Amino acid sequence: MRRGTIAPVTSRPAATQHLSDLARLRRVRDRIDREYAQPLDVEALARGVNMSAGHLSRQFRLAYGEPPYAYLMTRRIERAMALLRRGDLSVTEICFEVGCASLGTFSTRFTELVGVPPSVYRSQREPETAGIPSCVAKQITRPIRNREAPITDPPID
Predict the structure, then answer these.
(1) Rg (Cα) of the chain, in Å, rounded?
(2) For the segment 92-124, what is each residue's pLDDT rounded down to a tens digit?
(3) Which of 65, 105, 110, 117 could serve as a FRET partner for 9 with CA atoms 20 to 30 Å apart?
(4) Torsion sign (Cα): 140, 142, 144, 145
(5) Contact 80, 93 (CB under 8 A)
């Protein structure tokens, strides 16, 4: 090593801390997956794993590609899609069933992720998944994250 350069420091405690942080992030993600319909917020999730809300958000984004709240909303929209395909509940009932408190926010987020409003999704998607096992339907109808849904303009005639 040249004079004046600093040797990289690798410490066992840092690696252990990193693994511990990943385990805590996994617990947060598992809790969101389990309790998506409950009133969850980032502060409560952070308290549950002894982290600050800001630190949790930063670390969760690094580990999973999106902040915890976006992950929670994606889980809620996925469940809403399944309930819409089932067809026995109204959009309003589904909104509250998946843990959203505002129909407007639910519809906006649904449209951002899926590309169409919930009522349109119900009418368009029902025949597409008819006869397909629900585990397969969930995979092929998974919402697109991070506002990547294609914008579909009506044809101009």
Answers:
(1) 20
(2) 999 999 999 999 999 999 999 999 999 999 888
(3) 65
(4) negative
(5) no
pLDDT at 14 over 80: no
Return the amino acid letter for 142.
Answer: R
Q: Supply 46's token pair.
A: 């952070």
Q: Where are the domains of the chain?
A: 16-69, 73-140
Smallest Cα–Cα separation from 78: which of 112, 114, 105, 39? Answer: 114
CATH topology of domain 73-140: Arc Repressor Mutant, subunit A (1.10.10)
Calpha distance 93→15 (Å, rounded): 46
Q: Are 47 and 35 in contact (CB under 8 A)?
A: no
Q: Looking at the predicted structure, is the pLDDT value of residue 7 above 60?
A: no
